[in-house]
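On clarity, I found the account of how folds are encoded harder to follow than it need be. For illustration, here is how one protein appears when written out as sequence plus structure tokens.
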Amino acid sequence: MKTLYFDCGMGAAGDMLTAALLELLPDPEEFLKEFAALGLPGVRMEREKTMKCGISGTYISVTVNGVHEESYDVSEHSHNHSHERSEYSHDHMHEQPSSEHSHNHTHSHTVLNDIEHLVREHLALSEKVKEDIMAVYRLIAEAESYAHNAPVTEIHFHEVGTLDAVADITAVCMLMERLAPEEVVVSPIHVGSGQVHCAHGILPVPAPATAYILKDVPIYGGNVKGELCTPTGASLLKHFATRFGEMPVMKTAAIGYGMGKKDFKEANCVRAFLGESLKDLDAPLKDTMFLTDKVLELSCNLDDMTAEAIGFAMERLFEGGALEVFTLPAGMKKARPGVLLTVLCAPEKEVQMAALLFKHTTTIGIRKAERARYLLERKITSIETPYGTVRRKESEGSFFGENFLREKYEYEDIARIAREQKIGLSEAYEKIQREVEG
């Protein structure tokens, strides 16, 4: 399945998502020429390579009549590393950074119907892209309507901010159509922390509109002060996400880094991974014999048992139904050499395995962890030979177009033949192999 995964560990903004998706294309410049041909009034989009924490990525610069949106921005309210901001308002005031940073320019404002007229009547886009753009804008308008307790029809968009946001939203929707993923998975979103300043006062992070958009979406705060996820970034992710969660198992074909403008201790970027993933990993797959399941790992440290006693305990654990039991050398308290004893078992065997560990070892504490594992489909076949029946374990499966096959004769049967024939294990194996191969 063609899968797109967004890593939003430093939030998301429209320009950062544009940059990340642009890096997934084999020819980004060709796309920028196509975007320029749309003829958005006064809009110019440029890309530049930049570095964050030693990582190379793309930064997208959007100007409207030669002016960057950040010129009208509220630095505390802006996305901490983007030229985009929460510029939407239900009145005719655009946000001012402060009296000493204010400017005397006069700007008109537009409403949602004006955006729709521009998109549907003046941009040469497919119907799908137009629908995506307007769906994203409706999410933004509804959120601002809720936050300001005003009808959607009264939500106004700042002139420069409008064209800046239209550019980002349009670019992302065009890129998503071109990449055409079958599934879009988005990580939990880092929204930032602290407070932001806007025309209406000091607001908590995430800002009310962003918080409304991100309802039912996994989000988290952190040590970074400021607004990391903007309404535009949140709306784009919510509109296109098939689901939110951890990165799926996938074979990556391309990785894009969309950089923000500012620098932090963390790499200031959105990452986009494009590749092939498997579906329904928690259940047997219809198109493959490659399986997954969950197992429990129980472990304890031992420094006061003999090797014989540990061996006896391992035998009892296997008899009790453990899937695997193994030991590793470990350095213990007071510089004592010891052993780490680990048991893998099915979840339903948890209590039984823990009881056996307490019964047959000297431990006073057992650690538990849930593990996921990949499995090849297994079966046991019996082969009749002149030396008796020999069992053979056969395992097979396919994964990402590759086939895997494992075959192994059961040790007990090979050992029995070696004892009966008074030969070595390797010679017994060779005899059986010759019989099988004819």
